[in-house]
Amino acid sequence: MTMGQWKIEPKRHELIFFAIRLFVLATGLLTTIAIGHFLGAAASGVLGLVLQTSTLAATVATLGLDLALLRLFAPAVADGRPIATQLIGKLLGFVVAADIAFVGAVLFWLAISPEAVDRATLMALIVALALRPVIRFEVTLLQAHGKLVRSHLMEMPINLAILLALLLPNPTLTRVLAAMVAGTAAAAVPALIGIARRMAHGRGGEGAFYMRARDVARSAMPLAAAALFVAAGDWLGLAYAGLYFGAAGAGTFRMAAQLANGFMILFTSIAFSNLPALARIANGGDRSELGRLLRRMAVTAAALGVPVALGATALAEPLLGAIHPEFAGAGAVLGILLAGQLAAVVMAPFAYALIVLGGERLNMALAGVRFATIAALGAPAAWWGGLWGLAAAISAVLILNNIAVWAMLRRALHSGPVPCASAEITAPKASLF
Fold first, then answer.
1. pTM for this predicted structure
2. Which residues neighbour 301 within 8 Å (Cβ) at sequence distance 6 or greater?
3. What angle separates helix 316-323 from helix 12-61, to the nearest 10 degrees?
4. Buried b / exposed e along 266-284 (16+ C-beta atoms within 10 A)
5. What sign does the dihedral 425-67-255-372 (CA atoms) show?
6. What is the distance between the alpha carbons of residues 267 and 260, in angstroms, rounded to a whole number?
7. What confidence tens digit (pLDDT) does each residue in 109-150 have?
């Protein structure tokens, strides 16, 4: 089967979605840089820990549900079958229960360590933990219904509120934390309205899509666990930096990590505009065509990413110093993290193909090993080598993990038929807005 028959060129709505994702990513990166520029390393660390913790909480709270929504509900919605109100209510109940548990855990922690955090940080953390999982739930419902642009813009008020607070005269950490609370609440309002409308105007009975909530969660558990391991690993790296080097160390590490991740994705994303085509070819069974497309995507990503990594590493010290003098000594940290992110973007198509070809549990196992290795090596690496030692440990784990993904996919492609357990992951019919 030829490339033309598979219509490899991205469709118009895929390109629009791709551009929106880049815009959201660029806005997030700009927010991180602005925080560092106006407030310095320590404030960046506090805000980074709040945002990273709430991201991890949202991942845990929607464990399995967001991915299950996309895998199971999107095909039903595309066929004109609404999601049963009863099912949405049960899944939302899981999210709310997780919300209550997270907020309760924070309050318990403060009860035994009342001086652990100041009041402004406490308020921002509680609001973020309470509302971001609900926002994530609505984001997933929008994606299942094909509203891709709206889903990616749902959390934009958070970054915009922080940027606005930073641009006002004499910005302070307390004011920025208050802006983050306001932005999170602003994002939660349309999310709650959207969920309430679906509950009020949805329907059950014949024709509506329904299955037991526990079966929904079980269906997506391998992918959900992998996402949780990745999010937990990112959080743990930042937590180690804060534990050993204080808020300023956490802020410096987060700045370097965000720049490394942002640069790599921004400048190499065009290499991945054919991911939907990759899924179609993989599900069609033409493995020779799949191999050619994977190699082309990896080579394109490498051709774009290597010059960016080398250039950013060479300019790391003046770049970080221009953001704020407190970051000026972290050039080596940025360079080391760029190496890991380069491996990640070059191997990203292989990881995606492994999942589409039915290697979900294998992907989960590799992600679990990655998290466990970071947990085991992060502390001694930080103690021995400082921030650059922590960065080296994380990048080494990331590189080895991606090599393992490549090896496992190569084995799968040469070992006969592999069940396409993830055929449902392909994008739903989308109206975008």
1. 0.83
2. 268, 271, 272, 345, 346, 348, 349
3. 70
4. ebbbebbbbbbbbbbbbbe
5. negative
6. 11
7. 766 666 656 777 878 888 888 888 889 888 878 877 767 778
